[in-house]
Structure formats: structure tokens, C-alpha cells
Amino acid sequence: LRAAFDIVCDNVGRDWRRLARHLHVTDTKIDAIEEKYPRNLTEQVRESLRVWKSAEREDATVSHLVRALRACQLNLVADLVLEDQQARENETAGSGGGDKSPAESLTSWDSNGPALGGP
């Protein structure tokens, strides 16, 4: 979720209030965030996401965030979040077997080699 927050902070810009409302952050909290960080847009976005995360707890998920982004017509940002999440999942899947992968790849190459050359 932290990586998704970084992407949102870097790309949402002034639309953060609309996103915060879709994430059920109250107008009172939005106003308080603006007062706390009057000239720092990135921190306003980040704080609104923190408020959402602390309110939603286990319901504060990347998929929930992506749905809210799409509801705000922030589809490009939603796509960036999903692409990053998929890349991280692929890294995790690849690194999980990192110790075994060289041997496994050699074994699978050796075992598949004759089959590829056959009729």
C-alpha cells in the first residue's frame, strides 16, 4: 500500500480532494489537512491517504484505492498503481524461488531440450 500511496501522491495533484471524498474522508478532515499543509500538495495527498487508511484499517486495500481512483476518472493513476502492484508481485514470485531458479531453469532447459528438437 505504501508504494501505491507514493504513486498517488506523485500523480493525483489537485484532484486529491475528490479522491479523498470517494475514500470517505470527511470535508472537515479535508479542511484540517489543507490547514496543516497549506502549501504542500504532496503532503495533503499523503495525509488524506493516511486518514483513509487509519479509518478503514484492513479494508484499506490497493483494490479499494484503485476503485476510488477510477470513480474519480483518474484512470491513468489507477493503471500506474496496478502496474506497480503487478510488478511487485512478479518480483516477489521470482525472488521466492531465487535460490532454486538457476538449477530449476537448467533442469527444465535440459529436459525440454530434446523435446524441442524432436519431430
Automatic annotation (TrEMBL):
Record region (Disordered): 87-119
An example Gene Ontology molecular-function term: death receptor binding
GO cellular component: CD95 death-inducing signaling complex
Cross-referenced SUPFAM superfamilies: DEATH domain (SSF47986)
InterPro entries with a match to the protein in the record: DEATH-like_dom_sf, Death_dom, FADD
An example Gene Ontology biological process: extrinsic apoptotic signaling pathway
Death domain mapped to chain residues: 1-85
Pfam families given in the database record: Death
PANTHER family in the cross-refs: FAS-ASSOCIATED DEATH DOMAIN PROTEIN, FAS-ASSOCIATING DEATH DOMAIN-CONTAINING PROTEIN FADD
Name the UniProt record assigns to this protein: FADD protein
